[in-house]
Amino acid sequence: MIVETTPPPVRSATHRVTGPVRATGSADEWSDALRDALADPEQPRIVFQPIVDLRRGVIAGYEALARFGTAAAPSPDLWFAAAERAGVAARFEARVLRAALAARERLPPDCFLSVNVMPNLLTTTEVASVWADADLSRLVLEFNETVSAERTPELATTIQALRERGGRIAMDDVGSGYAGLRQIARVHPDLVKLDRELVARADGDQVRRTLTELVNVFARRLDAWVIAEGIERDEELAVLVGLGVPLGQGWYLGRPAQNWQRLDPAVARRIRLLAQRTGRGEGVGSLLEQVRIRVGDGRPPRRGTSASAAWWPDPPAQPHPGGGVGAAGGGAVVVVNRRHQPVALQLPVAPGAAAARRVPASMVARPDEHIVDVARRAMSRAPALRFDPVVVVTELGRPVGLVRIERLMLRLAEMSGGRPRPPEHDRPQPRGKAPGQAVELAATNRATAWAANRAADRVVVERAAARPSHGPAAGA
User: Is the peptide bond before 319 cis (omega within 30 degrees of 0)?
Assistant: First the structure.
């Protein structure tokens, strides 16, 4: 759970200040403070801290943070620890979750809202009554790394129920330990929050940078997004952008506030400049193609006035900002489940053909993920799936388009210094084969795969040689 050691002095004009309590207060002092807080329906209140896209320089979401009393009051983790000892933690958790759900209705478009929860309290009467019948779309539930999310079959079932209602799961305070990586592998979170201990002073510590890169690569291979917590200096921001960490949070990017604050334009420009300098602008989103989106039974995604409906565009999906767009996926359709996550692709058997084949959505990628990284992951799939298109998704798994492997290979060849190939329709085709089929057959050739890997290796070397040092970054 995120802890702000010096909470900002944000206070409601109407809430009653909880009685004084020291961080090292006695059991009686804490008992009185908890009783007063429970008697005040406005306690705890919540403030919102922005979570920023570290490639585009825009706000991607917010985290709801609990606040008790005044700025001089003990930190929230001490309050919740005392509440847990007193057996009233579930009542406070329910209040925070209810407040987050209410605030989500005012959430800016294309943003998510995350909130900390204790997994062991999810099935309590107080907390379950809040989410059991709620629409959890655009809500991220953060679990602390030290709390086992699969301690009991009942809890695993609860997590599945949360996802069925549209919620997403994040692992909080993930560090370099084996336990944290094992938790990621077991829970398969949608978001991974990097421990601030790895972020602090990363510009002067090679070990921290290496561990950050390790967690980022591991999470990416499991289709999770990493959020770096505790960014307080420009030098730390430069390191994280250079390592390809997709999301960031910290006082340098924005402090907690009562309302949805905007990103400082100077900080936004700085992020975009850093992304350009480190080559992070060459994301796979530049190869994006529009597609139609259908739920599993063939109907369009649900529309209406709910938060989830407002979050989903009518097909065809719009291109990612800053990304290129090809033709509408050659008739391809992304099939999504009830949670609007891609589960399958319907691909035409030939250009313009009505008949289609259905294949699993075996790989997803972020729009900002580098072309080389996507190519390597694509080539690591099972042979039968290796050359199926890659679905491009947003932070919370929303499909925005797809990338065909042949376009990926062509771009790799161009990046490695090779001459671009002529368009498909200008190249000689094997007799009896449609252009799309010929490309797929050629791509399956072992020599083609070898050449693609050589091109990827060359780009990796060039990027490493061009990577700036991690010393103090220049001002914007």
Answer: no
Instruction: Verify that 294 and 259 share a domain, yes or no.
Output: no
CA distance 342 to 361: 6
Domain count, the chain: 2
* Cα-based distances in Å from 318 to 289, 308, 347, 391: 9, 17, 19, 14
- Are residues 263 and 160 part of one domain? yes
Compute the CA torsion angle 37, 40, 42, 45 (nearest 10 deg). -10
* DSSP H/E element including 292: strand 292-295
pLDDT of residue 285: 84
For residue 33, is it within any domain? yes
Q: What is the Rg, in whole angstroms, of the alpha carbon atoms belonging to the chain?
A: 24
Q: What is the CATH number of the domain that holds 84?
A: 3.20.20.450
pTM, whole model, 2 decimals?
A: 0.67
The whole-angstrom separation of Cα 132 and Cα 136 is 10
Q: From the CB of residue 242, how many other CB atoms can be counted at a distance below 10 Å?
A: 23
Confirm whether 448 is domain-assigned.
Answer: yes
State which of 230, 253, 278 marks the end of a domain. Answer: 278
Asked if residue 253 and residue 350 are part of one domain, the reply reads no
Torsion of CA 363, 367, 370, 372, to 10 degrees: 40
Among residues 243, 230, 249, which one has the least CA distance to residue 395? 249
Question: Residue 81 contacts by C-beta under 8 Å, 6 or more apart in sequence?
Answer: none
Structural domain containing residue 140: 27-278
Q: What is the dihedral of CA 467, 470, 473, 476, to 10 degrees?
A: 40
134 and 216, same domain (yes or no): yes
Q: What is the pLDDT of residues 324-334, one digit of tens each?
A: 434 445 688 99
Express each pLDDT in 84-130 by its tens digit.
Answer: 889 999 999 999 999 999 999 999 988 999 999 988 899 899 999 99
374 shares a domain with 228: no
Residues 271 and 412 occupy one common structural domain: no
- d(C-alpha 140, C-alpha 118), whole Å: 13
User: Scanning the structure block, which residue is given the tokens 């719009």?
Assistant: 318
> Of 285, 308, 459, 277, which is closest to residue 372 (Cα–Cα)?
459
Percentage of residues in the chain having pLDDT higher than 90: 35
In a domain, 19, yes or no: no
DSSP string, 216-249: HHHHHHTT-EEEE----SHHHHHHHHHTT--EE-
Q: Give the span between the Cα atoms of 434 and 441, in whole angstroms.
A: 11
| Pair of tokens at residue 197 | 């201990």
